[in-house]
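Problem: given the chain below (405 residues), write out its structure.
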Amino acid sequence: MKTSTLIFIPCLFFISCLGGPASDNSEPSIKEYGQQSVAYEDLEDRNELEMEISISGRTQITSKKVHHLRDARTGLVVNSAEYPSDWKVISKPIYTIDQKLPTFLIQITGPDHLKSFNTPITYHVDYQDPQMAEAMYNTPYEKLVRPLVTPQQIFNEEVKARMSNSGFQYVGERERPEVTQYLWNKLASKSKMNSSLSMYNTEWKNPSGQKALASVSIISMQQPTISGNMMVWFYTVNYTFVDETAYEMTLERMKEATFSYAENPQWEHYVAQLAQQRAQENQRRMEMASAQHQNRMQARWSAFNAHQEKMKGIWAAQDANHASFMNRNFGAGSDTGQRQFINMINEEETVHNPITGNNYQVNAGSTEYWMDSEGNYIQNDDLFYTPNGDINLNNREWVKVKKAY
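Solution.
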């Protein structure tokens, strides 16, 4: 489950482009984000690329520079995007979901009091088999189990109160279909599973003349399991704050940065090799587990057979009362031919007990018979078995008897 899902998590970088700085803490306030330190910065100037932007009556000539998202484990660039050169972009790889495939926290600051960031990815699993879900609730992974929700529900749980506590008032929803479609196309090109992307954008204002965009993004993926299907889903929240006069221009630049996303072929090759290695390791573990299971089953079957053989004698001893009854009714002294005929009809044999000196009737078909002084007997087909050492037979004295006819 884990490998196939997390290979596609770098797609969330597109969603991260809509936001900026982030923290390892799950519930800081909006103001606290701006005071946090960052761990990684990798900017390259692109002075030769200039563009003219005219939005809301403002015209600016700006150059761009490239920011790389880099894997701290290998040093490889995962992907990159172009940002205005007057924006400061800082990123930090985190490995809370997969120790070899990072997700990124991104912080952007710039003119007009621009501040943008994304929250750490929150990961959940929705088991459609109720028994599997119940079983997972009693494991260390209990916190991961949660039914898939809508972005609006995440908004009500996390975003609404956070924005209100930071002095912002809700303005309304903001549709960004071109961005959503672009991100969906990227996700679909990476994932071969049944995947979906949901985004919910809301706009806010505060009395200080700032405007904000808060976006909730959820990616979900259907995955088959032994007991049915399960839904793997994760979400992040992206915040952008800027002066109201620069709000539309900033969103346009954010969109252009998103569309400038470029993958690193070396990283894609590394991820493909990692997936292959993990698939081979999973196959090896499955084969090992299968072999161990077969060995356990074989050992249990051998133990069962040995137990059955041992119990044959015990079960025969429990039928001794029946043998005594037959002896009283068809005891010694009968004519040999008649007795043999009766034995054939009743599927019995007549044996002589040297302890008592009497003959007894026993069920036919066993290799040998053992008797005690009371006429109780044991049928046995194991030539190495002796009941005198069997603690289940109450330490009686048993003697091997022979056929009388």
